[in-house]
Amino acid sequence: MGFFGKVISKFKQGLEKTREVLVTGAGGVKNLLMGRRLDEEMILELEKILLQADVGVVGTRRLIDGIRVDFQAGRMSRGEDVIEYMKREIKAMWPEQDRQLVSAPSGPTVVLVTGINGAGKTTSIAKLCWMLRSQDKKVLLAACDTFRAGAVRQLEIWSERLGVEVIKGQQGGDPAAVAFDACKAAVSRGVDVLIVDTAGRLHTQDPLMRQLTKIRSVIARQIPGAPHETLLVLDATSGQNALRQADEFAKALAAAGEPAGAAAGGPGAITGIFLAKLDGTAKGGIVVAIREVTNIPVKFVGLGETPEDIESFDPEAFVDALFAA
Ligand code: GDP
């Protein structure tokens, strides 16, 4: 199996629950459409299925309107045509863009990771470490979540397993000081990537948001151009809630004095989304909804609980896997 085939099969496995609801199950689109002539009732049923899989109102409306126009104009009459149409349209939603981590032209690349507690932030950081280590990159972690008891230890356990060093401070200490030490260490040790874990924050908690802003400015002063990426970890199982979080995070960061977020079309406080737990949900359509509603690219998806369960998001593989037999 070629590289692309392997990626598709990994996505296919990870998307099992979504595939069941959206595509392969008794109530899915294949059962509704295959071998049948299209009619208005089927289009209405299709709309329900898309909404159930959290494709979202905007994305669903766009797909359904397009199908209806073609159907009424006599350009689309078979159920199979609808499936091909959806595959084509969904793939075309993502512009050509590089979904790899942005790298610093010289010196360490700094990746700041944020997200609410429980979203899968620590596990996602372990996955990033694993991926970077398997690319022979030297990685350093900064444990700036000094707020939550056990957060540093949790990170240390992963780092020991993955052979990555951690810079940490006192429980309850100043996270910006940890970020400062970590930047110094990253430069002096010549690491390729510094991953900075921040306190799992609720976007509504002002002090935590300001803390994040402070960490960002400390990093920017130490390493020009840094942080090169600010990744927001979202929990795919929370469906439309994840979407609200992305929006509110971007707004809260902007309100805390950050430049306009990527969601606002600006250079971007949040540069990418790590969508965790995609394997644990039937709401995988959220990937489409994120694309429709925010401008923030999903860069990585989590497809399981081990560090290897990370994939760079690839729209082509995602759609092919979703609709595969
Ligand atoms: P944090 O509080 O945001 O740091 O969240 P954790 O990284 O501790 O993850 C919370 C729970 O989600 C843990 O039980 C993880 O094993 C689980 N988890 C994280 N990412 C994934 C994923 O991609 N797939 C699955 N199935 N579970 C995940």
- Strand/helix succession: HHHHHHEHEHEHEHEHEHEEH
Q: Using only CA atoms, what is the Rg?
A: 21 Å
CATH architecture label of the largest domain: 3-Layer(aba) Sandwich
Distinct small molecules: guanosine-5'-diphosphate
Rounded mean pLDDT is: 90
Q: Order the strands across the largest sheet as they lie in space.
A: 3-2-4-1-5-6-7-8
- Structural class by SSE content: alpha/beta
Number of domains: 2
Architecture overview:
With 325 residues, the protein is α/β, with parallel strands linked by helices. The chain has 2 domains: 3-96, Four Helix Bundle (Hemerythrin (Met), subunit A), CATH 1.20.120.140; 98-322, Rossmann fold (3-Layer(aba) Sandwich). Helices cover 49% and strands 12% of the residues. An 8-stranded mixed beta sheet has the order 3-2-4-1-5-6-7-8, with helices on both faces. It starts with a helix and ends with a helix. Guanosine-5'-diphosphate binds at residues 115, 117-123, 200, 276-277, 279-280, 302-305, 309.
Brief characterization of the structure:
The protein has 2 domains: 3-96, SRP54, nucleotide-binding domain (Four Helix Bundle (Hemerythrin (Met), subunit A)); 98-322, Rossmann fold (3-Layer(aba) Sandwich).
Looking at this protein, list some descriptive labels.
binds guanosine-5'-diphosphate, eight-stranded mixed sheet, 2 domains, Rossmann fold, alpha/beta, 325 residues
